[in-house]
Amino acid sequence: MAFKKEDFNLSGPLHLTTVDWNNSHHRRSVAASLVQGVYILERDRQQNRQGPHSLASPWWEFFHFQLLSRLTDDMDSSIFGAIYEYKLPSHESPRYVVALRGTIRKPDTVSRDLQLGLHVIQNGLHHTSRFEIAMQSVRSMVASGQAQGLNIWLAGHSLGSAMAMLAGKTMAKMGILLESFLFNPPFVSAPIDRIKSKKIKHGIRIASSLITAGLSVAVKGNLKKNLTKDNSFVVLSDWVPCLFVNPADHICSEYIGYFEHRKKMEEIGAGGIERFATQNSIGGLFLSAMGKESDLLHLIPSANLTVNLTPSADFKTAHGIHQWWRPDFHLQSKLYKYK
């Protein structure tokens, strides 16, 4: 029997009978639904649901998208992504969407998905075959769409958002800025944001910034040199992905403090130190000191950060994709632009 959350008619955003592509709630809801479509494509495969018994297609057909292709993992043959085409394109709408799912804790997928999650923690996702397959698809869509000036979106949830973020960063370094919707993206760090005392949190963050900035100078050299336009982190500043996080989700909640702390450091006159510290982490600096790659996946200069302030019943709800198309929750959005 299918779970209720897999059936679009029972849990999808049926209220969006008409999509206004200038409405941020509509855009977010459609992007999240397309990611959910990837989850259900894989669940259909696992459950051998075919024809009228399959549940995936309403998640994109309701919004007038068609499925162009499935992205399949070369290790476990699971469907981890999909490329959609919008059938009624306009200047504001996407023409193509590359959507990537997160972890599915079922026997067919859990081993491979958790292995990739470990690669995220170890900053090695870019070396995996799944990411290479996804990146090749993104490059292909960009190559075919650029000449026609077509709008291409990236969308992902959890592990999928990590892959979408890495793909977006890769393209941004080439000067190609893709609109990106990243739901519950992993932030690999101690969950400082979960500390209740604001004073203690602020103190820890200031100390961390000072230590990180000092180590950065020791490892990478001159501070001013690392704030110039030649720096790869600074190059990314024009790319502004949309991040969607929940404070009760320890996997992504640290993004709230990451961006808010930068603002507070500016207010106390320590913005220069923080602009340097925010590019690095202590773990990344140790990698750099050992001659290894230190461009950490989760560190980004700019973002449009949306926080779901509606209380969540448990971690599973806080980390779930379904929250992002609900019309009745309390959201707070802020634009953080690296200067």
Q: Strand order of the main beta sheet, please?
A: 1-2-3-4-5-6-7-8
Shape: globular
Quote the distance from N terminus to C terminus. Answer: 52 Å
**Number of distinct helices:** 12
SSE-based structural type = alpha/beta
Give the proportion of residues in helices: 40-55%
Q: What's the β-strand tally?
A: 8
Secondary-structure element order, N to C: HHHEEEHHEHEHHEHHHEHE
Spans where pLDDT lies below 50 across 5 or more residues:
223-227, 284-290
Give the overall pLDDT as a whole number: 86
Largest sheet: 8 strands, mixed
What proportion strand?
A: 5-15%
Global Rg:
20 Å
Summarize the structure in short.
The protein is of the alpha/beta class and 339 residues long.
Describe the structure.
The chain is of the alpha/beta class and 339 residues long. The protein has helices at 8-11, 24-47, 58-61, 110-121, 129-146, 159-172, 198-220, 232-235, 254-267, 271-277, 282-289, 315-319; strands at 65-72, 79-86, 96-100, 152-157, 179-183, 242-245, 303-308, 331-336. An 8-stranded mixed beta sheet has the order 1-2-3-4-5-6-7-8, with helices on both faces. The longest helix is centred in the first third of the chain and has 24 residues, at 24-47. It is globular. It starts with 7 loop residues before the first helix and ends with a strand.
Tell me the layout of helices and strands.
Blueprint: H1 8-11, H2 24-47, H3 58-61, E1 65-72, E2 79-86, E3 96-100, H4 110-121, H5 129-146, E4 152-157, H6 159-172, E5 179-183, H7 198-220, H8 232-235, E6 242-245, H9 254-267, H10 271-277, H11 282-289, E7 303-308, H12 315-319, E8 331-336
Parallel strand pairs: 3-4, 4-5, 5-6, 6-7
Antiparallel strand pairs: 1-2, 2-3, 7-8
